[in-house]
Amino acid sequence: MPTPFRTTLWRVLLVQAVTLALLWLLQSRYTADFLR
Amino acid sequence: MHWINWAIVATYLTVVVVDGLRRTRGTTNIEGYFLANRGLPWWAVGLSVMATQLSAVTLIGTTGQGATDGLRFVQFYFGLPIAMVILGVTIVPFLHGAKVFTAYEFLEKRFDAKTRSLTSFLFLLSRGMSCGTIIAAPSVVLSAIFGWDLTVCVALIGIPTVIYTVLGGVQAVTWADVKQMFIIVFALSAIVVVLILRMPVPLDDAFRIAGATGRMQVFDFSFDLSKTYTFWSGILGGTFLMLSYFGTDQSQVQRYLSAKSIDEARSSLLMSAFWKIPLQALILIIGVLVFLFFLFTPAPMLYNPEHDAKVQRAEPVAYAELQSRYGASIATREAAARDASAAQRAGDRATAQTALLSFRGADSTVNAVRTEALAAAARVTGESSRDVNYIIPRFVLDHLPLGFAGVFLAAVLAAAMSSIAAELNSLSTATVIDFYQRWFKPDASDAHYLTVSKTATAIWGVFACVVATYAATLGSLIEVVNRFGSFFYGSILGVFMLAMIPRTRAPGAFVGLLAGMATVAAVSILAPSVSFLWHNVIGAMAVVVVGSLLSLGGPTTAPVRR
Question: Rounded to whole angstroms, how far apart are CA atoms B148 and B162?
């Protein structure tokens, strides 16, 4: 049986938040100063 | 390519076709053939949804885009998780509960037959054409890389797919998708590992070098309607595009209509909500890593070998001059990259920034020479250059260890075949259910419909292969597939949104649909700078507004309940 929808929904939001945070970190760490 | 790589590709093709043939046993009636008797597990449907969306264009075009443009394309997918959640609580329960075969069938239950027929016809029109481009995209690349005739490449991808889709129906499509998704993820992961291991400078330095060219820029918050990939176009336009694609496009709707229950259908969609953005980011990072790899390993001036050979033949003197300047410029750029890495190792931020700035200048010189070479290629061949789509195939074939090229080629075929199979399967369903059964032969036997369905799948397969053979000159691989759909997509979504609104009526839906398409057409003609991602929002909103206004004052009709 799949996990209840509400639980899955929270997990989706969590995974997206973590992904976007990682992408943000990647951008802020590696984009050169002169491009900011 | 080494025979071991070919053996891997041959094994993959054999397994997919043989397994598809085994699935014919479960398809003795039309519900089995089109919907697997609504009995598939959510995880298989979820992988099938992902495999259907991920085409060969994603593997070769998007990785190439990562190499030339960096990570910002990932913003295109920001609306996807939002769309999946919205669909999970809106359209999915309606469609799954209505026990329909096609999404458009639901529109007849809610509105009328002509709204159903028009939306289904628009689906057949746009998907029938796009199916051809989905075969054409990898075929063109394979043809240039291996020097084969385009028809051979179209046949290599098209024939096995048509065989297992015709004979095995949705069962074969879904279970093949599951295997194909594993092959794709395995191939991508293997390439990442090889790229990291082969990077001559520490990864941290390498990413900083990529960052000096703007390739590590993910987010663009500017609200500019002419820019295709911004945070806002991704969140708003992307949500509407994904709502249309996953909620109203039969090639996706049919995937989750085959799930066991509404809950399982929702969960299958949420699998994409979980994994699409991370997977897409991984694909773009592979592109960035390949760009970095080619900083330290001499890269070809033109990645498309066919164009390279033609320019060399047609303009030998100019080619030699360009090649000489290109060789010098990539040597300077490599030295600048190594200096930048050394400066970062030394730990002095100011020196490192100066070194990165020099590297950026050297990279611009390389790009300028390449632009000249691409212009020469366009002049000589008469074709607009699609060089970006050859970067990853060249890297894979020239630089990966033995066996990897075979796995990657199998993954490209898998990505193409999984998308084509789902589309053929859904094109046949819409043809048979929405037109043949609805208008021509409503009371035939199940056996008759099954035969007609298999024939329709085969005809659509042949049609797609023919389109693919002639679609070689169509526009950019990445955007052409989306563009085909975006003209109608928003408007069709608008009709489904209207169906969710109580009191809206059939005349409003039909006229609203026409008004939506007319609005999108007007916007694309009068304001061509508005990015296609916004067309979906505009189309959907026009349908909802016009449809609601025309429904004012009429008798109340509640939406169909499950």
Answer: 21
HEC per residue, B388-457? HHHHHHHHHHHHCCCCHHHHHHHHHHHHHHHHHHHHHHHHHHHHHHHHHHHHHCCCCCHHHHHHHHHHHH
Q: Which of A12, A20, A27 sits opposite B216 (nearest CB)?
A: A27
B350, containing H or E segment: helix B349-381
Q: How far is B169 from chain A (nearest CA, A)?
A: 25
Per-residue pLDDT, B477: 45
In angstroms, rounded to a whole number, what is the distance separating the alpha carbons of residues A27 and B211?
A: 8
Percent of chain B with pLDDT over 70: 95
pLDDT at B448: 94
Enumerate the residues of chain B whose CB falls inside 8 A of the CB of residue A9: 85, 88, 270
Report yes or no: B534 and B233 within 8 Å, Cβ to Cβ: yes
Averaged pLDDT, A12-35: 89
Number of Cβ within a 10 Å radius of residue B458: 17
**Chain A residues within 8 A of B270 when measuring between CB atoms:** 8-9, 12
Q: Which of these, B559, B29, B42, B26, lies nearest to B261 by C-alpha position? A: B42
- Taking the C-alpha atoms of residue B12 and residue B403, their distance in angstroms, rounded to an integer, is 13
Q: What is the mean pLDDT of chain B?
A: 88
Q: What pLDDT score was predicted for residue B126?
A: 81
| Maximum separation of any 2 CA atoms in chain B, in Å | 80
Q: Look up the pTM and report it.
A: 0.90
Calculate Rg over the CA atoms of chain A. Answer: 16
Reduced to 3 states, what is the DSSP secondary structure of residue B199? Answer: coil
Q: Which residues of B touch A29 (CB under 8 A)?
A: 207
3-state secondary structure B122-158: HHHHHHHHHHHHHHHHHHHHHHHHHCCCHHHHHHHHH
Q: Which two tokens stand for residue B33?
A: 């053939």
Q: What is the pLDDT of residues B155-209, one digit of tens each?
A: 999 999 999 999 988 888 999 999 999 999 999 999 999 999 999 999 999 999 9
Q: How far apart, in whole angstroms, are the C-alpha atoms of residue B330 and residue B465?
A: 40
